[in-house]
């Protein structure tokens, strides 16, 4: 994949329209933004090809039956296992977020599980990975916001 081009105001406007309604037609977007359908189509295709946007159906986890959300801090010893552990965890379907961190622990993972039993099974699988020294799990009792990033925060004109 080639390096992404710098997004301009029209790119942000198209992405914002699609964040509000992922099924919005190019015709409607073009009308809203006062540009041609061809312009919207070509910009969209470029954003898609570069991986800036992908087409997915976003599911509300709670309505779909996920009743247990958690944040897990993972401590890795020795540190040389960090990448292999991350490679294994990223493939696990429960994972919604995974990042390397600075500070007290080495990896941070957010998961969505069916229930507490499913979460316990997940943590046990992680704990068995070579190099996992310790885990610390925090349950999310209630999720107040689960959203995509607000693109307005990146606009150059703001």
Automatic annotation (TrEMBL):
Q: Does the keyword Transcription apply?
A: yes
Segment forming the signal sequence: none
Which SMART domains does the protein's record reference?
HTH_ASNC
Q: Which residues form the HTH asnC-type domain?
A: 7-67
Keyword set, alphabetical order: DNA-binding, Transcription, Transcription regulation
Q: Which Gene3D superfamilies does the record associate with it?
A: 3.30.70.920, Winged helix-like DNA-binding domain superfamily/Winged helix DNA-binding domain
Q: Which InterPro entries match?
A: AsnC-type_HTH_dom (IPR000485), Dimeric_a/b-barrel (IPR011008), Tscrpt_reg_AsnC-like (IPR019888), Tscrpt_reg_AsnC/Lrp_C (IPR019887), WH-like_DNA-bd_sf (IPR036388), WH_DNA-bd_sf (IPR036390)
Q: Which Pfam families match?
A: AsnC_trans_reg, HTH_24
What is the name attached to this protein's record? Lrp/AsnC family transcriptional regulator
Record the organism: Polluticaenibacter yanchengensis
What lineage does the source organism belong to? Bacteria, Pseudomonadati, Bacteroidota, Chitinophagia, Chitinophagales
